[in-house]
């Protein structure tokens, strides 16, 4: 049942208590309650996703952030390598978590990513050959709502049979063919990819979006809602977990079986216990915050806030990784970009009305029109000097995301003109940041430092990404369409100018990971073992993007579902 207030709880003990109804939490809740003898409570800080138009309508995805009622309205600390700018850093605070507000692009990454996880954790269970089954269980390919043929644009054999619906755009934009034709004519410089879910994660492709029947497919719609009527599942929303409480005796390893929560900062705190496990799925910001509030973290840092350390794990909150992204703008010779839609309320309302009527039209597709995953040139001096941080030769350093209009990031949409945006991202970052506590008050946001652009390597990769974006639109298919560059990055000419402009333009692509990273059993670093159990404690598991040992060169929701599916299997085995 879906509960909105703790007073509706009929009991104070469940087999499993999952903290966070996000991408991972809902997938896990759905799988665990397949066993009718397991009782599960999910506690979620945010509100319901039901009926929120900005969540349901794919094209409106960017309207859910920043600073909205369905988002944690976090900001970063001043970013030293971005001219001390403070960035907004939203996460979903709603059923479905960030899978309810994300920009829908669905990529599982290369096989190499998972083979590397296996290497970094010493657990062959993370190899692609083992986790492939979990990818297949999490999502499936569906036709776009327009019903148009997608033959030659996707390979159905690379897809599974799971609940999350994945589809290609149903309403081709004027740039779709230009993107694909450029790839096919580029002699391998920008290789065409029939399907980025093939294991080879390189190439140029139309985006695959987590969209079914023209509507967002999130962990809430795909995993949770279909099973909400199970009698062994309760989901308590609008309730914030404030900490976990140790339930072991003084001489035993700490065991965090009691969860403390409250409706808001002034409300009375209550607790619920798990007879089997508490599972933290609060995401890459929420999970380390709750761990530290519960006395799990760096002993010295916790002490300065008056928190008694129960498990000294200095890596909690460290190793924050994310993909920096920024916008490259071009004037185009067109009257069909989505610029008109954003500027003219009557066009916008007509598109929305069409979506409301039958889930078709522009609004049934996500905001991206194409993606390109690329490697640095093989003679790159940055790789010679700093090494190659990718998982292997089929994994990208760079991503370009194309949009048929002005995608406003740090520069607002100009009042006139028609634009192409090529967003450039570093998907193999070597910068590492952190999440640390600002206060022992659970309602005070933590300090979030993605530490973007801190390494020369990341700067060189972004520079190359800008060059690729410029080169891409010089190809024949763009002749007569793309005109001159514009915007702060577009105006930069020399390498130094481009890097300087990047410091003013970079934002987050919203992919924080690795703040409770896995490491081998017995390692003196890391936060969880390869079975996702917290080191140095008894029976507390972490299941979300915070456990990634390293960030993949991919959008992160599909890898998160893979983690949740494997976790469900590990937990079922542990309690069979
Ligand atoms: C704006 C945006 C755009 C994105 N675009 C894409 C994209 O196009 N493609 C892609 O693959 N990925 C994208 N992502 C990233 C992707 O959505 C995340 O990587 C993924 O959802 C992570 O899953 P998770 O389970 O780790 O965390 P989340 O999905 O964030 O779930 C965590 C949940 O825990 C809850 N929670 C946190 N703290 C507490 C607490 N103290 N008490 C109770 N509940 C709590 C949160 O409210 C949330 O519901 C985007 C993310 C954002 C925010």
From TrEMBL:
PANTHER family: CHOLINE DEHYDROGENASE, MITOCHONDRIAL (PTHR11552:SF147), GLUCOSE-METHANOL-CHOLINE GMC OXIDOREDUCTASE (PTHR11552). It comes from the Eukaryota. Belongs to the GMC oxidoreductase family. The keyword Secreted does not apply. This is Aryl-alcohol oxidase-like protein. The active site is at residues 511, 555. Keywords: FAD, Flavoprotein, Signal. GO terms for molecular function: flavin adenine dinucleotide binding; oxidoreductase activity, acting on CH-OH group of donors. It comes from Schizopora paradoxa. Residues 92-115, 283-297 form the Glucose-methanol-choline oxidoreductase N-terminal domain. Its cofactor is FAD. FAD binds at residues 94, 102-105, 241.
